[in-house]
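Collaborator request log, item 7. Partner lab (contact: R.S.) asked for a structural prediction of RNA helicase to inform their binding assays.
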Amino acid sequence: QRYRDPEAAEKMNPFAEQEAWEDYQTEKATLKFGSKDKKLASDEYEYVFEDQIEFIRANVMEGENYEEQPPEFTDDSKAKSALEKLQEDRKKLPIFPYREELLGAIETHQILIIVGETGSGKTTQIPQYLHEAGYTIKGKIACTQPRRVAAMSVAARVSQEMGVKLGHEVGYSIRFEDCTSEKTILKYMTDGMLLREFLGEPDLASYSVVMVDEAHERTLSTDILFGLVKDIARFRPDLKLLISSATLDAEKFSDFFDMAPIFKFPGRRYPVDIQYTRAPEADYLDAAVVTALQIHAQHPPGDILVFLTGQEEIEAAEEILKHRTRGLGTKIAELIICPIYANLPTELQSKIFEPTPEGARKVVLATNIAEASLTIDGIKYVIDPGFSKMKSYNPRTGMESLLVSPISKASANQRAGRAGRTGPGICFRLYTLHSYHTELEDNTTPEIQRTNLANVVLTLKSLGIHDLVNFDFMDPPPSEALLKALEMLYALGALNKLGYLTKTGRRMAEFPLDPMLSKMIVASDKYKCSDEVISIAAMLSVGNSIFYRPKDKQVHADNARLNFHLGNVGDHIALLKVYNSWKETNFSTQWCYENYIQVRSMKRARDIRDQLEGLLERVEIEMTSNFNDLDAIKKSIISGFFPHSARLQKSGSYKTVKHAQTVHIHPSSGLAQALPRWVVYHELVLTTKEYMRQVTELKPDWLVEIAPHYYQLKDVEDTTSRKMPKLPR
Ligand code: CDP
Ligand code: MG
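Returned to partner:
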């Protein structure tokens, strides 16, 4: 058998392995991690979150508007028995035997670190236990989640268990969507939303308990929350603080929270046998497909979960699997292929939750969504190629990119654990045991060390935290990145020379957006086009999923799209035209179909826009419309995005004005053929090249007019103009 690596034959559970590894001597890495260590990210930047939300709407909430949802349980006996069944299930969770002990520990200690395996009931049960024990009399219970999809799905689950309507006693809050009410006592929210709550309520007075959940994920917001909640715990002795995590780095959390005690309960129910490849795989995608087929042909029933890095890979794997199973004939059971990635239409996503029919086997091809956020029942086999898409940040240029990179040991163990939830399982790692030990980092680098910090710095400044260097970070960000963020906020006019928040900065902080977008909106006040600019901001916030391009109708779709680009108005104005045209049809779904536009993305843009409109009022910006003055709109955009300017080169590529970085217009842009001499872009995406996405033409004088502190005349002098070749128009 291909996977029987004698060295790895001993059956290990992922946690024992991790512990054993701690005593292991680190050798210097000699083997390359497969042949694809640092493959470029796929062309499709993944807007995972938008789609996860749609996904939950379809699978958990049954309908878009929770208000219109019928109550989950009525008084009839059928509903009662469903509720009773849920109550029985609660008692079967691994955390249940520890209920009293846990409540006792929370009673005695202000801060408690809680460690238990994924699926053991931390997120759904602890807030309920606290509620049952009376903690909600004194205030609400907040439970933070790194992913929006988790906040929504867990809130939905808990509201079912409590037999209440989602949004009433149990609710969730995620960016641009608040599903809570006056009644809400258990509030599931993204870590980013709790961070924003500090702005309105710096001592979190309305909460009696804050549970920072999935702490091991170490997202940027979670890391900032650590510092903030630690601080308020000092002057609010009545506040209980719980830090819960699935992995074993609890000592680190305990150290940070002044030696808070660790409450650890066993959660693993079934062993997982881990198998490695004998030699590194040259092509992990192919290896994953072959492994899936081998399992299907040779192993007992049980579903398969394959971790891939994104849509392109998943589609490729799906194609190959379909092709190869076609030849298998009827001797072998049916293999149901279920892809799950960001841009997959909602109807297809629900397929992964449907129970596998008798005699068939399901293979779920998933991105990292399935690592911790989604629980799929019936998985017995996990195939782990060992890669994921990771954000990385270059503080020098301020550029963020997504790269396919090796995962960490903690991640690998989390993935393996998915095979043992409902019975003993097997995890096939498509790398060698040696690679595992020598090439995988123990833990994923915390996001704070590989991301743009402008947004959190603005939030911290508006919380009155001035001295960022001495902020209580669990792992401090690189000082370069901190400096870069301060510089950027100064350039945007959010901070003054002394690093204090300006009036503009205060207004910007009100918007839950990237500071450049917030600045664009604040600047629209001056140019009297706030109406148009918030539409553009909303459309940009929806991400890359406005236009729909079915494989068999690409020409039609492209023609429809080009209609909005007439006159080379640029991508920002094209988005505005899409929004306004949709509005003119009274938000018609039919119109969306006819124009190859995704209606759910448009609805989301409308929601976001409504909220931005509300925020305009809050920062006292008048709603003014100036659709015919495209220059005014462009100047607002440049007020926020002037650092993202680029100039055309003789070669047809561009160079960013500030950092002289070579970049290109993304083929999906309306200006991809026009190639204007000067452009401003929304974002850079690294695929085969560094691409600018959402591009608009600008006049170089505007840069000096709008950002004289950032650009000088010499930066924008058109010295190359005489030598410019004739370019296709
Ligand atoms: O937080 P932790 O990973 O410890 O577990 P949890 O999220 O509280 O999940 C406990 C159990 O609740 C899981 O094993 C699932 O069976 C169930 N659950 C569910 O059915 N639907 C959800 N959205 C979340 C949890
Ligand atoms: Mg959890």
